[in-house]
Amino acid sequence: MAGRDVKLSLLTYGLHYGGGVFEGLRAYDTPWGRSVFRLADHMRRFQESARFLQLNLDYEHGELCEAVKAVVQANGAHADYIRPLAFFGHTSSLGLDLKGVPAHVAIITVHMGSYIGDRQASEGMDVIISSWEKPSNRATSLTAKICGNYVNSMLAKHEATMAGADEAIMLNNNGTVAEGTGENIFIVRQGRLITPDLASCVLEGVTRDTVLQLARSAGYQTEERPITRGELMVADEVFMTGTAAEIVPVRTINGVPVEDGRPGPLTIQLQRLYHDAARGEDERFIDWLCLVESDQLELIRV
Ligand SMILES: Cc1ncc(COP(=O)(O)O)c(C=O)c1O
Questions:
Q1: Which end of the chain, N or C, is more open, meaning fewer C-beta atoms within 10 Å of its C-beta?
Q2: Where exactly does CATH 3.30.470.10 map onto the chain?
Q3: Which of 81, 243, 247 is the pocket-test mutation for ligand 1 (most atoms within 8 Å of CB)?
Q4: Which residues pair with 87 in a beta bridge?
């Protein structure tokens, strides 16, 4: 069904209060056909986000995965980004109580192309440190992808746009680095790859996990721990990761170049590894693929 044909009540709970959860996935072409990257992991997080919000999805994990595959198959190669969305629906009283409010699930797909931009993916992006603080883990669950949490991201992204930058980095209530508006962040210092831990108020990104695994497979040491603003400003390399953004180098922060202002060697290596893993071009990582036209990953292995 085309998005414009959907009718929603103006009394939809999710519309008023951000009571919903969502996911973002990407489909890529592989030698064996179209595949959704890390489908099972995304849909597990979708279920966990819904569970946190006590939003009853009424669908099992396998059914959700099959639905995503069917949507990708039906929409062809142009559809490269998939957005499962679950939200609380019609509530006649407009009260905040969730009891008795029905839940709805939709799977949407669009053509996204490069989220931040092709130039930024190859040359690096300009970011600001936002004046908006990332909400704390005491204020909400940041492990869950809750629609209402994204008002904070919206403000920070707009602040970046108005400043002529590509993206914003938010600090958390401890003053350490949290993440971007729709991306996790990594720094490289003395050959070690470092990303904020989950207590630093970040989403448990699927791409973050992919990058940690790719870096370890390439022999690098990785650390998940708080990162100070001072460390960020003197890092050898900085890049941001997300399903939409993929891996994007940061070339300036508040106008100050990161090292020489050019993407660093580890960033470039990880971009290449990620590119190959997502497209089935690295056989070590084919378990991350989910072919939309067959379940026969076994065929790939022979
Ligand atoms: C706030 C935030 N952080 C990080 C990410 C990256 O997560 P993932 O790699 O699972 O797409 C996203 C993207 O959904 C996000 O919205």
A1: C
A2: 3-110
A3: 243
A4: 20, 104
Residue type, 86: A
At residue 33's C-alpha, the angle toward residues 30 and 37, to 5°, is 55
Tens digit of each residue's pLDDT (9 = 90 or more) over 23-61: 999 999 999 999 999 999 999 999 999 999 999 999 999
For ligand 1, atom 6, the nearest C-alpha belongs to 242
| Residues 243 and 206: beta-carbon distance below 8 Å | yes
CB distance 146 to ligand 1 below 6 Å: no
pTM, rounded to two decimals = 0.96
Which of 43, 207, 246 is the best mutation target for the ligand 1 pocket, counting ligand atoms within 8 Å of the beta carbon and taking the most? 207
- Residue 134 is a catalytic residue: no
Atom of ligand 1 nearest to the CA of 244: 11
Cβ contacts of 66 within 8 Å, gap of 6 or more? none
Please check whether the domain covering 3-110 is classified as CATH 1.10.3210.10: no
